[in-house]
């Protein structure tokens, strides 16, 4: 159990204790450290605040750069002031190259070889003669047409997806027609034969542009002309006899046969040379 120190007078004791406490705080406040932590006085010296060695090195480097720049500028001004023409007169001549002659000789050799190669290429004769091929092909076609009994119809290289629309018997004109047309009636089994296209081109018949298609089964010739503006189709069927006659007259060129087409009303007309002179009423 804590017991207070016995004193004679409590008021005097408290006043003495308070005075001692104030004196203790005053001594603590005025206490000085045993270690000196202040800035040393030598830090204010000039040789410590300024690095004189580093400044000397920078000054020397700047001086060297200025010197090299002046030399370079002097050389550039001399080059600009003295042209290459004056170099042989008053200026210093360039040092001769040790391999100049060898390089010049090699360049001349390469140039001569290139010119020789170019001359050989220009004078080389072609191995393949397409003109002779075309003549041979035309002669072979002529021999084939002369020796063939029926008209020669060769298939096209590119098959066409379009097919000739079937012909109606009502649209085929009679042989006795006054228009001079070469159409005749054909039996149903012959119309069912396979047709091969021999011509499919755009032709101008009269004042109208038609898509003309010609197909044959080796005997008859089926002609169809389509008008894209009015969307109508004119059809014509030529019998075997008249087909062979037209084939001989046109020398096997169906383009010439197509040039003879013309439109009479709503009918497609194809007169022959004999038909134009004396009518087209020949019997098939």
Task: Using brief descriptors, characterize the structure shown.
four-stranded antiparallel beta sheet, elongated, single chain, two-stranded antiparallel sheet, alpha+beta, 284 residues
Report on the structure:
The protein is of the alpha+beta class. Among the domains are: 51-78; 169-278, no CATH class. Helices cover 43% and strands 14% of the residues. The protein has nine helices and six strands. It has helices at 10-29, 46-49, 52-81, 100-123, 130-147, 188-191, 240-249, 254-259, 273-278; strands at residues 196-205, 208-216, 221-227, 232-238, 262-264, 267-269. A four-stranded antiparallel β-sheet has the order 1-2-3-4. The protein has a two-stranded antiparallel ribbon with strand order 5-6. The longest helix has 30 residues, at 52-81. The chain is elongated and about 165 Å long.
Q: How far apart are the termini?
A: 158 Å
Oligomer class: single chain
Classify the beta-strand content into a percent band: 5-15%
Q: Element order, helices and strands?
A: HHHHHHEEEEHHEEH
Q: Can you tell me the residue ranges where pLDDT is under 50 for at least 5 consecutive residues? A: 159-192, 273-284
What characterizes the major β-sheet?
Answer: 4 strands, antiparallel
Shape: elongated
Q: Structural class from helices and strands?
A: alpha+beta
**Strand element count:** 6
Strand order of the largest sheet: 1-2-3-4
Number of helices: 9
Q: Average pLDDT, to the nearest integer?
A: 77
Which value, in Å, is the CA radius of gyration?
59 Å
Helix content: 40-55%
């Amino acid at each position: 159990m804590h017991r207070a120190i016995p004193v004679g007078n409590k008021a005097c004791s408290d006043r003495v204790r308070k005075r001692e406490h104030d004196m203790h705080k005053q001594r603590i406040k005025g206490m000085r450290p045993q270690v000196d932590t202040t800035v040393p006085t030598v830090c204010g010296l000039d040789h410590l605040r300024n690095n004189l060695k580093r400044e000397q090195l920078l000054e020397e480097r700047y001086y060297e750069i200025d010197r090299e720049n002046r030399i370079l500028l002097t050389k550039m001004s001399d080059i600009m002031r003295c042209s290459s023409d004056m170099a042989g007169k008053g200026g210093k001549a360039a040092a001769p190259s040790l391999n100049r002659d060898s390089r010049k000789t090699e360049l001349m050799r390469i140039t001569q070889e290139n010119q020789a190669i170019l001359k050989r290429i220009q004078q080389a004769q072609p191995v393949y003669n397409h003109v002779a091929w075309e003549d041979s092909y035309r002669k072979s076609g002529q021999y084939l047409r002369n020796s063939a009994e029926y008209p020669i119809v060769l298939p096209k290289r590119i098959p066409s997806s379009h097919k000739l629309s079937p012909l109606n018997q009502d649209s085929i004109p009679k042989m006795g027609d006054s228009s001079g047309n070469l159409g005749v009636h054909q039996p149903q089994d012959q119309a069912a034969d396979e047709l091969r296209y021999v011509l499919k081109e755009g032709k101008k018949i009269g004042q109208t542009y038609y898509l003309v298609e010609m197909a044959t089964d080796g005997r008859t010739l089926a002609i169809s002309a389509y008008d894209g503006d009015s969307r109508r189709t004119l059809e014509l069927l030529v019998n075997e006899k008249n087909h062979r006659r037209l084939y001989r007259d046109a020398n096997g060129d169906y383009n010439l046969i197509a040039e003879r087409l013309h439109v009479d009303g709503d009918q497609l007309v194809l007169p022959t040379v004999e038909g134009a002179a004396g009518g087209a009423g020949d019997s098939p």
